[in-house]
C-alpha cells in the first residue's frame, strides 16, 4: 500500500492506493480541522520567539498576574508572603544580634530593643504579631532602640503595599466576568435557510441567568484564507458579517433566547456560497457577544465559533418559548434542536442569474432589437437594389439617398406602432380608436415621406417629371429600359 497525502489549508486527507492495481481509492476520513476559536471561546493562539519583548510583561506586572492561571496565582501569593515574612523576621533578629540582646535577654536590669526576643523563632513571632496586629503584649519595642522604630515603619509600609498588590490581584481574578460568560449559551450549529424571502445565516444565543446583560451587542467575523491579486497569501483574513449593524438589530435585549440573522446578499461574503460549494469551502465564523454585567457593572465577553461542517444547510431552529399562565416559559431542551425546511440549494448569485434569465422583461428588448435588425436588413437590401440600377434611372428617382430616408421614416413608424404595446391598456385603447392615432400617424408618415419626393421631382425636366409621377411614357423608352423601369416601380 502506498499513501498519498494531500493538503487543503489546515485539513489533510490521506488517499491509499492498492498496489495490486485494482484502481480503487479508499479515502481515509479527514483529520479534524484546527479551530482558531474553540466552542468555549478560548483562542488557540500561542505567542513564541518574543526574545527581548518578554520584558514588557514585567512592566505590566499586575495584568500579568491576573492573566495567570489559578495555580500560579496561589503559588506566587504564598511565596511572596513567606519570603516577605522571613526577610522581615531576619531583620529583627539581626538588630537583636548586633545589639547583644540575645546574650542578655534574661537580664532584668538590661533594656533590649525588643523585649522577650531570644532567638530567630521569637523574632519571627514578633514580626507576625506586628504585621497581623494581633497584639499579645508579650513582645514589644522599647524606647531605647531607634533602629527598631525605623524598621517598624518600613515594615508597616512594605506590608501595606504587598497586601494591596496581592489581595487586589486575587480579588480581581475572582471577580472576573469570565465566569459570567459560562451562563451565556450559543447554539451548537448555525443554519442556512429562507427567512422573509431571503437566504439567511442564523444561530441562536441565550442567557441562563435572570440578571440581564446591559447594552448587549453581538458581532460576527468570518475567518477565511485567501490570496490577493498581487499573490499575497492571507491565512486568517477577517471579514465582517453584518448581523444588523445598519438597522440596530445587533443591540440585543437578551431576556429570552434570540436568533441572530445574517442576510446573504450581494454585500455578504457568502454571496456565491451554495450547498454544493460548502463541501469544499473552509471557513470559520467567530461570534462575539459583549455586554455589561448587571450585578457588578463589569464588561463581559463571550465567544464561540462555527466551522463549515457546523453550518447546516436547509435547517431551522425549533421554537423554545411558550405562553403559560401569566408568564413565558423557555424550554432549553430544544435550544440546539433544528429541523429541515425546503431551501433552494443554489447560492444567491446563482438565484439572481436564473431569475434574470427567466425574466419576461427581456422579451421586449429582444423583439425590439429583432425589428430594428429587420429594418436595417431591409434598408441594406433596398440600397443594394438601388445601386444596381443604371445611372439614368438613379437620376430619375431623385437623390441617391432617398430610399434610405424613406426606409428610416417607415422604420420609425413601425417602432412607434410597436411601442404602443408597451403602453398601459387605457392608452392603448385611446390610440387604437379609428381615425385617431394610427390614421394620423400613417397620414403624417405619408406626408413626411411624400415631401422629399415632391421636392426631388420638382427639380427634374418636364418629361422626367411625368415619368417619375407615373406618367405613361414607357412607349418612348427602349425595351431594356422599359423592362427595368417596370421592375423598379412594381
From TrEMBL:
GO terms for cellular component: monoatomic ion channel complex; plasma membrane. The lineage of its organism: Eukaryota, Metazoa, Chordata, Craniata, Vertebrata. It is a multi-pass membrane protein. Pfam families: IRK, IRK_C. Residues 445-457 have a biased composition (Polar residues). It comes from the Eukaryota. GO terms for biological process: nervous system development; potassium ion import across plasma membrane; regulation of monoatomic ion transmembrane transport. Residues 184-354 form the Inward rectifier potassium channel C-terminal domain. The chain crosses the membrane at residues 74-98, 110-128, 148-172. One of its GO terms (molecular function) is inward rectifier potassium channel activity. Belongs to the inward rectifier-type potassium channel (TC 1.A.2.1) family. KCNJ3 subfamily. PANTHER family: G PROTEIN-ACTIVATED INWARD RECTIFIER POTASSIUM CHANNEL 1, INWARD RECTIFIER POTASSIUM CHANNEL. This is G protein-activated inward rectifier potassium channel 1. Its main location: membrane. SUPFAM superfamilies: E set domains, Voltage-gated potassium channels. The keyword Ion transport applies. It catalyses: K(+)(in) = K(+)(out). Keywords: Ion channel, Ion transport, Membrane, Potassium, Potassium transport, Transmembrane, Transmembrane helix, Transport, Voltage-gated channel. Residues 445-490 are annotated as: Disordered.
Amino acid at each position: 500500500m502506498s499513501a498519498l497525502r494531500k493538503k487543503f489549508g489546515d485539513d489533510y486527507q490521506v488517499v491509499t492506493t492498492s498496489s495490486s492495481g485494482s484502481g480503487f481509492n479508499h479515502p481515509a476520513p479527514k483529520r479534524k480541522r484546527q479551530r482558531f476559536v474553540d466552542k468555549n471561546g478560548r483562542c488557540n493562539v500561542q505567542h513564541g520567539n518574543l526574545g527581548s519583548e518578554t520584558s514588557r510583561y514585567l512592566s505590566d506586572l499586575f495584568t500579568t498576574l491576573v492573566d495567570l492561571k489559578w495555580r500560579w496565582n496561589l503559588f506566587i501569593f504564598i511565596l511572596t508572603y513567606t519570603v516577605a515574612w522571613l526577610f522581615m523576621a531576619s531583620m529583627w533578629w539581626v538588630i537583636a544580634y548586633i545589639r547583644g540582646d540575645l546574650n542578655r535577654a534574661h537580664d532584668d536590669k538590661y533594656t533590649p530593643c525588643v523585649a522577650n526576643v531570644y532567638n530567630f523563632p521569637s523574632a519571627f513571632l514578633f514580626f507576625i504579631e506586628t504585621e497581623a496586629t494581633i497584639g499579645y503584649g508579650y513582645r514589644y519595642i522599647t524606647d531605647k532602640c531607634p533602629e527598631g522604630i525605623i524598621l517598624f515603619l518600613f515594615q508597616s509600609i512594605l506590608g501595606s503595599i504587598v497586601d494591596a498588590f496581592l489581595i487586589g490581584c486575587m480579588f480581581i481574578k475572582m471577580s472576573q466576568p469570565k465566569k459570567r460568560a459560562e451562563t451565556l449559551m450559543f447554539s451548537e450549529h448555525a443554519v442556512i435557510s429562507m427567512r422573509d424571502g431571503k437566504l439567511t445565516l442564523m444561530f441562536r444565543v441565550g442567557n441562563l441567568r435572570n440578571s440581564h446583560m446591559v447594552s448587549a451587542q453581538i458581532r460576527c467575523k468570518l475567518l477565511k484564507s485567501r490570496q490577493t491579486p498581487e499573490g499575497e497569501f492571507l491565512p486568517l483574513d477577517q471579514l465582517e458579517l453584518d448581523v444588523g449593524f445598519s438597522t440596530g438589530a445587533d443591540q440585543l435585549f437578551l431576556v429570552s433566547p434570540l436568533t441572530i440573522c445574517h442576510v446573504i446578499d450581494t454585500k455578504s461574503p457568502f454571496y456565491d456560497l451554495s450547498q454544493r460549494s460548502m463541501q469544499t469551502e473552509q471557513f470559520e465564523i467567530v461570534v462575539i457577544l459583549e455586554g455589561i454585567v448587571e450585578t457588578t457593572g463589569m464588561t463581559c465577553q463571550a465567544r464561540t465559533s462555527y466551522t463549515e461542517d457546523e453550518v447546516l444547510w436547509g435547517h431551522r431552529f425549533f421554537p423554545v418559548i411558550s405562553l403559560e399562565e401569566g408568564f413565558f416559559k423557555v424550554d432549553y431542551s430544544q435550544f440546539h434542536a433544528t429541523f429541515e425546511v425546503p431551501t433552494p440549494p443554489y447560492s444567491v448569485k446563482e438565484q439572481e442569474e436564473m431569475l434574470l434569465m427567466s425574466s419576461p422583461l427581456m422579451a421586449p428588448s429582444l423583439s425590439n432589437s429583432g425589428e430594428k435588425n429587420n429594418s436595417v436588413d431591409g434598408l441594406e437590401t433596398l440600397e443594394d437594389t438601388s445601386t444596381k440600377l443604371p445611372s439614368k434611372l438613379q437620376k430619375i428617382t431623385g437623390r441617391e439617398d432617398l430610399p434610405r430616408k424613406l426606409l428610416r421614416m417607415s422604420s420609425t413608424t413601425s417602432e412607434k406602432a410597436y411601442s404602443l404595446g408597451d403602453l398601459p391598456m387605457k392608452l392603448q385603447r385611446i390610440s387604437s380608436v379609428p381615425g385617431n392615432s394610427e390614421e394620423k400617424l400613417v397620414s403624417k408618415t405619408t406626408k413626411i415621406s411624400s415631401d422629399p419626393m415632391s421636392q426631388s421631382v420638382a427639380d427634374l425636366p418636364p418629361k422626367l417629371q411625368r415619368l417619375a409621377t407615373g406618367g405613361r411614357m414607357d412607349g418612348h423608352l427602349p425595351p431594356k429600359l422599359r423592362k427595368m423601369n417596370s421592375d423598379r416601380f412594381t
